[in-house]
Amino acid sequence: MADMFRFADDLGPLKIIHVQDAGIGLKAVLVIDNVAAGPSIGGLRMASDVTVEECFRLARAMTLKNAAAGLRHGGGKSVIVGDPGMPKTDKERLIRAMAAALRGEDMYIFGPDMGTNEECMAWVHDEIGRAIGLARELGGIPLDELGATGFGLAQAAEVAADFDGLDLTGARVAVQGFGSVGIHAARFLAERGCVLVAASDSKGAVLDAGGLDIEALAALKAADCDILIPAARPDVIHEGNVDDVKARLILQGANIPATAQAEQRLSERGITNLPDFIANAGGVICAAMEYAGANQTTAFDTIKDKIRDNTLAVLESARADGVVLREAAVRLATERVRTAMSMRRWGSF
Asked: pTM for this one?
């Protein structure tokens, strides 16, 4: 109860649920933030150091992301405390138990996130039938295989680059978090003429100012750049390193990858820093389209339209009002959430 009131504001959260099963070592949290627009969609994250606060911040990011994208879904998030690299049988046991414990929470739809994937969603779907990001064999649109989030980041990059006068041909890209999002973002940007010059993941980093082989990096699984893509954990850009960032454009591939103070400083330095819930919404847009029964072509067309429109709207609003991009983005998304709330019988979350 204390957790809910510590984070509460007029948008949410609606529920914070702690899930625990000492017998199998399950310790988890679900935050359903706001469901005014419909059942919440948000990923299931697995990491050894996740907290209730991180779960809430990610759930709120999903509320804003889904609202900004005009989806018929609210925002939520779930996390399991544990090493995502644990033996598969142990991981399956925890995820199935988590899903079973939340069987009755029908205002939350599970999706893949850091530490989980299509197979994990198949386990959830088998238990409760309420998951997105499924494999083709289960009627899904495979988000990671197709790179829906990376595709959306590339769309945002095109709009922002044109707005700022940055030529993507030859633009140098650095990716922090060279995983399912970072790899595909690099690929889609390479198709537009960009050059990947640095990449890192949890195991290390590699740098080549002359350009890196994207496919070799993907198979093997920073420095100055024009475009920086933080695509891993929260708060990797903070007060202690923000002045070391040397980029013209930041595409937030991860959710909440920068602190509020760091974002203010980036704005002061004249760096275009596209907020997470605007730039990386491709995955959840694709997932929502999958849940509604749309096909892959329709999903990717929708990603393109929604992300390009929102990116331009936020860039223009921030410039016209002289505010940081996140303030403009939060205002856009919050207005949409409040409109949805005003149409509910009880004006509830």
From this structure: 0.90
